[in-house]
Structure formats: structure tokens, C-alpha cells
Amino acid sequence: MRAVRAARGAAILAAGAFFAPLTTVAQAAPLVASIAPQGRPAGLGGGDAAVAAAVASARDGGSSVILSVSPRPFARPGERDMVMKVADTADPGFARWITAFRHRAEARGISRRTLDAAFAGVQLDTDALRRDANQSEFTKTLWDYLDSAASDSRVSSGRAALRRYSGLLDQIEARYGVDRQYVVAIWGLESAYGTHRGSSHIVASLATLAYEGRRGRFFENELMAALRILDHGDVRAADMTGSWAGAMGHTQFMPTSYLAYAVDFNGDGRRDIWSDDPTDALASTAAYLARHGWTRGQPWGVEVNLPRGFDYALADRRITRSPAEWARLGVVGLNGRAVPNYGAGSILVPAGAQGAAFMIFHNFDVIERYNTADAYIIGVGHLADRIMGGGPIHHSWPRGDRALSFAERVELQRRLTAAGYPARADGLIGPLTIDAVRGYQRAHGLIPDGYASLALLTRLRG
Ligand SMILES: [Ca+2]
Question: Residue 333: beta bridge partners?
């Protein structure tokens, strides 16, 4: 995300995401169900300033995406401060923290009855602590991520969901103006169409992460939101389950996002995103996208052919042109003709000149509000296309490349800086780093595609 977009995109990230744009995705565990890169539906995370800051710091970059446990958006603060103490479940400090927190919650208007029910039997969630500490240690490339995001089974399950819920999706589309395949694709990535919604007790997980402190303020804010939901009666504390970092239900809303965007679509008086029936969750997701400016009928992006000799300096999110203007520069659809006029678009080359190129539109930015990782956005968009019958991405990826580790990204940034191309050494490949890479490439006669590859690092090492 890049600094510029960070503020905007911040909304969706929830727990921690880190998200760097695209080339690699790190994850702490195999992609089981959700595939969101660990950023949390930001939007879903709400407009919390702390999140915005975390996101801003997280997203400088271009080359790697941190996926979380379930490749789900989970905003990650960054891999640097992953060190953590391991506390045991009987930690007396945690009990004291809960007591103090309850006073703060009561002062904020949460009823004692809700607090009693919410904290009954709550213990430190060591699983959440462990995952929080480990989540960004593994790295996955964009192409590996996309292979999973749009696997044959995820595509066929998505098509089945489209048929099974066609009536509901008709109503949701009519009400919110959000194309159904995107709602279904988010559902597919977030919880494998509801089959992996998470079984962590949300209050215990959030309390643990708030107590642990590394991102205490963020999680306390989410915990407070969770208690408001309980206070309102939408769900019982025992049924408020989700992922270890607080994302809940079919489309993994963080509590603050739920408060801001969830809807009661079936009219039973409760905004229920937790139960087997996905009605409210799918409508809430559409409401979320609508609220962030979804343009009906506009694709997230389309794969394009770049002309020989294309000036890669133009492949920059900050540069937008109409499809007709791009066509004049030789950028056309896979059929060789100008891309239809979907509005202004920019060119994205997530793996540099050796991989696929896309013309992305405003809806790309809207999906970004759900999770800022470029890999996630491309994953949602591509899965949506596949669900509607589209084919695989046409161009190949540099599959021989592996993802840079965090230490290697930092080393790359240090070496670029030392070579006269300033890049903050934070391990996050964002606009600043991409610009530094381009500067170095340009000065050395390389294609200035901004791709932070291992080959570039090797070259910098001399
Ligand atoms: Ca309902």
C-alpha cells in the first residue's frame, strides 16, 4: 500500500496486516480456508487511526504480501516485532487486565450483564499468541497464492454457490449494486464459502491480543466493538466465534467493521454473520463494497498485452489513463483490441516485466478497502472472473523466482539506499522501494519495472 494509498486503504485492515503488494505472500500456515492475505478486512477493521498507522507502515511496498494463517487478510504490523513472550493461560496479569478492562468497558456503556457473559470462563488464548508471533515467517509468491485462490475446487465451489444462492444474490445485487461474483469470491477466500469460519472465542482472542500489548490499542478497540455487538443482542457470547485475530463469520468481519457495515438482510432483527445461513454476511459484504464506492459492471481489472518497448515507468498506480489512451500507447486487451471503456485505469505489473500485466480500475481500490494486499485483491478479482467462466491468467509468471525473505527485503533496501536510491529499510516493499528499484534499474540499463527480485538483490551484492 503505499503510503499514499495507505490512509485510504486502512480501513480494511484489521488485525494486522502487512501487506505488501504483490509479489510474494508470506503466510504462517497453509492456506486452508480463507485465503486472504493477512490483512483484515480493513474496512472491516474500521477506521481506527492505529490501524491506519499500522497499515501505512505496513504497506510500503511491492514485493511481498504477507498472508496469514488462513490466507486471510490479517493486517500485520510488520515482521520486525514478532518477538513475544509466551504467557500461560493462568497468567495472573491477564486476570488483572480483564478486571481493569471491564471498568473501562462499563465506563463506555457496556452493561455488566454483557460483561459477565462475555468474560465467563475466558482464558488467555495461547493459540492466538502463537499465531500472532509466527504469522509472517513464511513467504509465498504471488503465483502460488493465486494458484490456491483460484484453484479448481475453489472455482467450482464458487460456481455452485452462485447457482445455489442465485435468488439471494439477485436481491443483494439489486439492493447494493455490487456484482455478485465479487461477493461470492470474497466469501470463497475468506472462509472457503462458509466452511472455515473459525472456532476461536472472539472475546478471549481479542482480550488476549489486547493484553499482549504489541498492538494492544487496536485489539482493545476491536474487543470494545465486540462487546457492543453482544450488548445489542445480535449474537450470544458463546456463539461469537471466528478466527484467532478477531475476524468473524462467513466473510470475516472485524467487530468494528461489523458495527459500521453489517446489515440484517433477512429481516429477523439480528445481523447474523456467524450462523450457517450466509444471507446477512453476504449482504453485509456487498454493503461494505457499496459503501466504498463500488461501480457496478466495472471489472477489478483486465489482463493486458504491453507493447514491445513499453515504458515501465508508466506501470504505476499513480498514473491513470482511459483505455483509449492506453491503446494509443499500445496497451491492449488479450484480443489485441483496446480495452472497453470501463473508466480510467492504471497498469499493474505485480511480478515485473516477466509476469502478467493488468489494467486495473476503481473497483480494484474498492476491494483494497477489504484487504490491502495486492495479492488478495488480484485473488478476489481473478476468482470472481473464473467463477463467471473466465479462463486462467494468460501470461506466465517468473515461477523460477522465489519470494524474498524479510531479511532479504531489508538487505535490498539497505543496499539500494547505499547505492544512492533511498528506500526505508523496513522490509516492506512499497512505493518508495519500488521507486528506488526503478531508479537503480534505469541507471543500470535494466527494465525499470520496479520488481524487487532476488536477481536484483544478487546484483546489488556485487
Ligand atoms: Ca438477520
Answer: 304
Q: How far is the CA of 14 from the centre of ligand 1 (A)?
A: 24
Return the ∠ at Cα 440 (arms to 434 and 446), rounded to 5°.
Answer: 100
Mean pLDDT across the chain: 84
Q: Is 21 helix (H, G, I), strand (E, B) or coil?
A: coil
What pLDDT was estimated at residue 134? 72
147 Cα–ligand 1 center, Å: 34
Which tens digits make up the pLDDT trace of 319-378? 999 999 999 999 999 999 999 999 999 999 999 999 999 999 999 999 999 998 889 999
Q: For residue 133, which amino acid is it?
A: A
pLDDT band of 429, cuts 50, 70, 90 = confident
Ligand 1 center to residue 380 CA distance, Å?
A: 25
Report the pLDDT averaged over residues 42-56.
Answer: 35
| Cα 369 to Cα 363: distance, rounded to the nearest angstrom | 10
In this structure, what C-alpha cell is assigned to residue 86? 509466551
Helices (H), 267-373: 279-291, 323-328, 362-368
Give Cα separations from 417 to 371, 384, 423, 432 (angstroms).
29, 40, 6, 11
Where along the chain do its domains lie?
A: 301-368, 406-461
Say if residue 446 is exposed, middle or buried (CB neighbours under 10 Å; 0-12, 13-18, 19+): middle
- CA of 282 relative to ligand 1 center, distance in Å: 11
| Pairing relationship of beta strands 64-66 and 24-26 according to DSSP bridges | parallel
What does residue 241 show for φ and ψ, rounded to 5 degrees? -120, 165
